[in-house]
Amino acid sequence: MIDFEAARLKMVDTQIRTTDVTSHSVLRAFYNVPREAFVPEKMKSLAYIDGDIEVSPGRYMIKASPLAKLLQLAAITKDDVVLEVGSATGYTSALLSRLAGSVVSLEEDEALAAQSSATLSSLGYDNVAVVNGPLEQGYAAEAPYDLIFLNGAVEHVPAALLDQLRDGGRLVGVIGYGSTGQAKVLVRENGVISEGSAFNSSVKPLPGFRIEREFVF
Question: What are the helix (H) ranges across 75-176?
Fold first, then answer.
């Protein structure tokens, strides 16, 4: 029988601490959130592998190291109202729950949204509300947000998401796929968006964020 607590401690010590993650709040979140609760039953033995885990066709739980680095980059406080784009099974939602004041977790797959909501509720993450809708449209009903966190890579960030940031708010995520991916922070100040790159990162993509190509004749 797997000792999940020991596996979780090993994940933090060997996969996260070794990749320049020093934020105590982020490390505590990873220590305390049971990753195994958010993977399918048949895959629980793989919960702490150093890799992405496919939790539904085409949807992934991001490997621990880049996820921790992104959460550290986001510099989340208990005063923050966060929109998470791409709840999947709710693992990142649970981490955000421990870091932020409140979290709106958006998921477009109804079955995943229901699973995420049920798991989070059963574990007592009461400051997370899982909502259903297209990821690229965000969730304007609860806007504006202090932080929008992309739980997967995108090719571009739609204006609809940036419009849901409060003044001074930021969007954090990986923009670009594969080897071109970069972790970025986009900040809204007086209606103007500024962008900064933090580090290269390759994470699995979110659906719905590809740029439509036009044929040129």
Answer: 91-99, 110-122, 159-162
Give per-residue pLDDT as tens, 152-188.
Answer: 999 999 999 999 999 999 999 999 998 899 999 999 9
pLDDT digits (tens, 9 = 90+) for 61-78: 999 999 999 999 999 999
Per the CB < 8 A criterion, the answer to whether 70 and 201 are in contact is yes
Measure the CA–CA gap between 97 and 81, rounded to whole angstroms. Answer: 10
pTM: 0.95
195 close to 213: Cβ distance less than 8 angstroms: no
Could you count the other beta carbons within 10 Å of the beta carbon of residue 11? 22
> How far apart are alpha carbons 107 and 116 in whole angstroms?
9
